[in-house]
Every structure is written in C-alpha cells, then in structure tokens.
Amino acid sequence: MADVLNFKEKRWSLKGMTALVTGGSRGIGHAIVEELAGFEVAVHTCSRNQTELDQCLQEWKNKGFKVTGSVCDVSHRDQREKLMETVSSIFHGKLNILVNNAAKRMPKAAVEYTAEDISRIMSTNFESVFHFCQLSYPLFKASRYGRIVNISSNSSVVAIPSVSAYEASKGAVNQITKNLACEWAKDNILVNAISPGLIRTSLIESGKQV
User: Which InterPro entries does the record associate with it (predicted)?
Assistant: First the structure.
C-alpha cells in the first residue's frame, strides 16, 4: 500500500481539488470516487439509496478519504438543483471536477419501450449530464479551473440488441460533450467523455445504473 501511495505522490497531486461524482455508491462511480479521494481530492457524491450511501461514506471515512454525500435521483431536475446547492455550500462556491457517471440502462426490445421508459432514460442519462454541466459552470468560473468527464459507452457508436434507448442517450452525451468542449475551452473548462465497454459490476446484472 505504501508503494502505491508513493507512486501516486510522485506521479501527480490533486490535493486541494474538489469534485462531484454522480452515482458514486456502486459500480464505476464507486471506483471513481475512491480513485479521486486517493489523490486527496475532496469529493461529494450522490446516490438514490440513503442506506447504501451511508455505508459507503462510513467505509470511505475508515480509509481516511474526504468524501461527503447526498441522496439524489438525477432524473429529477429539482433534486439536481438541490444537490448543486449542497455542493456549492460544502465547497464554498467553487468546483474543479465534475464526473457525470449516473445512468440507467433498462434493456428491452425496441418495440417494448414505453414513453415513460424513454423519458426516464433520457432524463437520467442525457438531461442530467447537460443540466449538471450548466449548474457547475459558475462554480468552475469561480475556480478558474474546470474539468468535466462524462461517462458514455462504447455502445453509443455501435448497435447492440435490446439497449436502443440507452445507446441513443449515450450518443447524445457524446454530442453535448463536443459542443461544451468547444464552447467552454476559453474559460479553462475541459470537457471529455469516456466510452468504456462492458464493466462487470453488480449493476449489470440488475439492469440498473452502469
């Protein structure tokens, strides 16, 4: 463990940085929270499940990580706004890093998706990403430094059966990433997307967030 910490210290330092990671109690988001916290970033994360979030926060506290958390269903605009108010308060009106990780998969045949299904997927996977970027913008400006990482998917550029709505939402994430990267570069805000393949987490089996 000491060798790992020494390697991180020699490689780079993120001490003093602040970050918001959505959907950080499980899966990819959980790993991102731990990686950032391991580099001494002050991290705030969110989950829809209070019990699950509390368990994670206790685990991170035991590891000496500086992580706080809030309950938030990112598919709801008012909850996103409340979360960002909390983040702004904790980090004194400034933010350095935003990781838009929370997403909903919901595998179904294309003809089986209801209007409610599509609305839920798009509000979780795309609308929340766009909105969190908008809400974070003034905090990045106050920091004079912003880094946004949107978690997309390799399925956004290929066709995979039974996840057509999910793929469409991730394609939209790719596009807004490019637009914001161009528009906000002048403000020292870099916007990128990562498109991983299938990651074996507990969320894959449940068809929930990935």
Answer: NAD(P)-bd_dom_sf, SDR_fam, TR
Residue 187 belongs to a domain with what CATH number? 3.40.50.720
Q: Is 21 within 8 Å of 29 (Cβ atoms)?
A: yes
Q: What is the pLDDT of residue 207?
A: 44
pLDDT of res. 145: 96
Q: For the chain, how many structural domains are there in total?
A: 1
Q: φ, ψ for residue 22 (rounded to 5)?
A: -85, 145
Query: What element of type H or E holds 97?
Result: strand 97-100
In a domain, 42, yes or no: yes
Separation between Cα atoms, residue 170 and residue 119, nearest integer Å: 14
Cα within 13 Å of Cα(60), Cβ side: 29
pLDDT for res 186: 97
Instruction: Quote the pLDDT of residue 155.
Output: 72
Mention every residue, 6+ apart, whose C-beta is less than 8 A from residue 79.
72, 73
Residue 117 falls within a domain, yes or no?
yes
Listed in sequence order, the residues at least 6 apart from 147 whose beta carbon sits closer than 8 Å to its beta carbon are 96, 97, 98, 189, 190
pTM equals 0.89
- Cα 37 from Cα 1, distance rounded (Å): 15
The domain of 146 spans 13-206
Give the residue numbers marked as catalytic. 166
Q: Is residue 20 situated within a structural domain?
A: yes
